[in-house]
Amino acid sequence: MKTLLLALATLLAAMNFAFAQVDVNKGDAAALDAIKGIGPAKSKQIIDERTKGGDFKDWADFQKRVKGIGDKSAAKLSQAGLQVNGKSKEGAEMTPAQASSAPVKSAKAKAAGDAAAAK
Question: pTM score, two decimals?
């Protein structure tokens, strides 16, 4: 049972890192919504602008064409995993701690917590 829980915890942690980054030119509404700071209205605005004007060339183009995205919000979105043409905003590199808004327990800590709960 512990092995199964450990494997599940490891898989979930790996999935958080695998799906953390979304390219604004490739992401659908669901993928964009998954980025902290982008909701359904903003993802629709991004997709509408992308459809109307073509792919975003760079972060400056993205900020110019999407209303409400300035330097500060662009940096936060980049830290949350949004990319333009596969690139994070300069000066706002994503760190592993910022890859997920929810804290991820290590597999060892999770197993220890599960063992304590089972007693």
Answer: 0.63
